[in-house]
Amino acid sequence: MLQSWLIDVAEVRPAGAKGRGVFTTQALAQSTVVSGFGGHVLGRREFSKLPIDQQVHSLQIAEDLFMVCLPTSEPADFFNHSCEPNLGVEGNILLVATRDIAAGEELTFDYAMCDSDAYDEFECECQTPSCRTKVTGNDWMIPELQQRYRGNFSSYLERKIIDLNRSVPNSSGMLNG
Ligand SMILES: [Zn+2]
Predict the structure, then answer these.
(1) How much distance in Å is there from the Cα of 123 to the middle of ligand 1?
(2) How far apart are CA 56 and CA 61, in angstroms?
(3) How far is the CA of 17 from the centre of ligand 1 (A)?
(4) What is the pLDDT of residues 108-135, one digit of tens each?
(5) Who's near 144: CB < 8 A, 6+ residues apart?
(6) pLDDT, mean of residues 140-146
(7) How far does residue 127's CA lie from ligand 1's centre (Å)?
(8) What are the chain's domains?
């Protein structure tokens, strides 16, 4: 039995320079739940002992907590990042379609929606017009992204965004307007 759930019309396929990715074989309506992540919940100390290729297939769910499928990765671990994604995070473990998606499209989310840690930083090659070239663990702090992804951040990042904007009263953050 798998630890994470992936909608049955999705499959893992080669995705060019990105290695593998998750694609839908059928059209999906906006708001469709596409994946539910499960696995082992590890604290930072244990997590940091994992091999890098397992770390990058994990999901950060709190400041110091990471969910990861062990001992091996599963199909749901192969969602790629995009700076113009078609999925968002709901709660801490669900991926949901943020628009109607056509058959054959790759399913992606923006790692800024759930990462606040440097464990998975990389040069982005998503090649979308909005590409920010480098993806870092601090991207959730970018006001423009806070606005664009409002409601699509994981629960723990929504809370961090509220705290951040409260501590910087004159910022252009999403909650001060
Ligand atoms: Zn990009």
Answers:
(1) 8
(2) 14
(3) 13
(4) 999 999 999 887 889 998 999 999 999 9
(5) none
(6) 96
(7) 6
(8) 5-166 (2.170.270.10)
